[in-house]
Amino acid sequence: MKTENPFLDLLARKARKNRESYWDVEPFVTRLSNINNNIYASLWFKTNGCSHDKRGGCTICDYSNGISISTQDMVDSVALGLTTIPKGCEELLISPSGSMFDSKEVPDSVRQKIFSLLDKSDSRKIAIETRADTITYDKIKETQNILKGRLSKVYIGLETSNLWLLKYCINKNLDLNQMINSYNLLQANNIISASNIFLGIPFLSEKENIQETLSSIKWSFSNGSDIISLFPAHIKKATIGEVLFKLEIYSSPSLWSLIEVLRQLEQEIYENKIEINWYTSMGAYNVISSPYTCSKCYSKVIEILDKFSQSNDFNYILMLDEIKCECKNIWRDKLEKNNSLNLYERVINGYQQLSEYLFNRNWFDFHFDRLINMKIEYDINYTMKP
Ligand SMILES: [Zn+2]
Questions:
Q1: CA of 301 to the centre of ligand 1 (A)
Q2: Which residue in 6, 385, 380, 7 sits closest to 164, CA to CA?
Q3: Distance of CA 279 from the midpoint of ligand 1 (Å)
Q4: Is 6-381 a CATH 3.40.50.1240 domain?
Q5: 271 C-alpha to center of ligand 1: Å?
Q6: Whole-prediction pTM value?
Q7: Which of 230, 249, 302, 306 suits 282 as a labelling partner, its CA being 20 to 30 A distant?
Q8: How do residues 152-190 score in pLDDT, each as one tens digit?
Q9: Are 147 and 115 spatial neighbours (Cβ–Cβ below 8 Å)?
C-alpha cells in the first residue's frame, strides 16, 4: 500500500497558508533536561524546512520552516546555539526540525561542517533526528568519521505502524520496510535506534489512540527498534489539526491516556526502553492546545511525570495511576463511549468538513475521486482490535 495522499496534501498546503515562520525571529532553539542527574541537551537549527512539509506535510505537525535560509545561516545557527549548551552534557541532540540526513534540507557540505562543529563540543554522545529513507551506510560512516564514533542515537519518525492511519489520518509517506532496514543498519553500527511514536491521531477516539500507540510500540520493538520516544499530540497553528480542532472533531489527548499507555509498558520502562517527550508545551512553537487533565490536578500530574521522565522509575507511574480526580472519571467515561460512526465514516466526514472550511463543498466533490480506493484499503488494512 502506497501512503501518498494528494488529497490531504492539497488541504494541508491550504491550511499552511499565512503560517508564521519561527525562524524569522529566532536564531536557534535549545532545550535542556535532566535524566538521572545527567544533562541532555537539544539544539534545533535554522533550515528551509522539512521536505515532506513542502508537499503538505503531516496533519498534526508544524516543525517550522524558513523563507530563504542560506547554507551559511544554517552553520551559523548551529555555531551560535552551541555557545549556549552547558559543558559536559551526557547527550546532545542536533536537529534541523526535519531530517539531518536529507541532503535537500541539510546539504552535504553543511552537514559536514555542522558535525565538525559538534566534534569540538564536549558532549559525551551525539544524537540526530532523520527520516528512515535518508539513513544510509555512507552517511553513518561519514558522520562517525567526523565525530570519532560519538553518534550514538538516531531518532526516526514512525508516528504509527498502521499504514492506513499514516495515509488517511496523518498524511505521512512511509515505507515500513525502510524503517526495519534503518533499525538493522543502525544496530550493525552500534547506534541506538529510537522510534518516535505518536499519541493522538486525528479521527481516532481516545481509546483507539491508546490501542494504536501500544500496538505501534509493539511493532517497533518486534522489528528491531531499541527504544521508543513517545509524543502526545499538541495542536499547532496552520495545520489540518488546527482546523479539525476548530471544527470540534479533534483535540489533544488527555494526559491520562499517556499515563495509561505508560502503565501498560511496565516491562519496557523497567528495561529503560521508553522515553517521553513533549508532554508539556514548554519550548514548543505555535501551540494552541496541549495534553491536559484539569486545573485541580494538572500541576501535580506534571510534577510526577517530570520525576518519571528524569528517573524512568515505574513507581511514579503507579503514583499517577492512584491519583483520584473528577477529570479522571470523565476521561474514563469517554473511553467507554462508543462512537456512532466507524473510523472510515469519521474520516470521510472530517474530509468533507475540512474541504468546506478551507475551500467549499464543490471542491470536495471535485477532488474526492482521488481517494477512490480508500474504502477497499480500509477493509483490507484496517482492523480495529476490540
Ligand atoms: Zn483533574
A1: 9
A2: 380
A3: 16
A4: no
A5: 30
A6: 0.94
A7: 249
A8: 999 999 999 999 999 999 999 899 999 999 999 999 999
A9: yes
